[in-house]
Amino acid sequence: MTRLGRQEYATALGARYRTATKPEKGRLLDEFCRTAGCHRKAAIRLLRQAAPRRARRRGRPRRYGPDLVPLLTQLWELSHPRYEHMAIRINNLNLY
Predict the structure, then answer these.
(1) pLDDT digit string (tens) for 29-75?
(2) Which candidate, 60, 57, 30, places its Cα nearest to that of 44?
């Protein structure tokens, strides 16, 4: 059995293994070892792995919602180091 096949089989059997009682776990381990051809300890490690979690967005939470992003992008593009130019450009935007 290939490594990928063993991993797929462990994923399929893992949910049952994690919720099983001790005698059932022994039977599942025997079945996995016979089928995959690996030692019991390796089988235990593979079957105990939890399902991969969905990655969370790291860092500071977003301050502005998606409805303000186009406006903020436009403001950012129009920004200029001289404040009087920026004020004129902001007044020319159609905000409402």
Answers:
(1) 999 999 988 899 999 998 988 666 777 778 888 888 888 888 888 88
(2) 30
Closest CA to 6 of 30, 42, 41: 42
Domain hosting residue 88, numbered range: 65-96
- The DSSP letter of residue 44 is H
Residue carrying structure tokens 């290939």: 2
Taking alpha carbons only, the member of 39, 49, 41 closest to residue 10 is 49
Do 76 and 44 share a structural domain? no
Q: Is the pLDDT of residue 85 over 70?
A: no
Could you tell me how many residues make up the chain? 96
Report yes or no on 60 lying in a domain.
Answer: no
Residue 27: both structure tokens together: 């039977």
DSSP state of 68: T
What is the token pair recorded at 60?
Answer: 């500071």
- Separation between Cα atoms, residue 76 and residue 79, nearest integer Å: 5
State the total domains in the chain.
Answer: 2
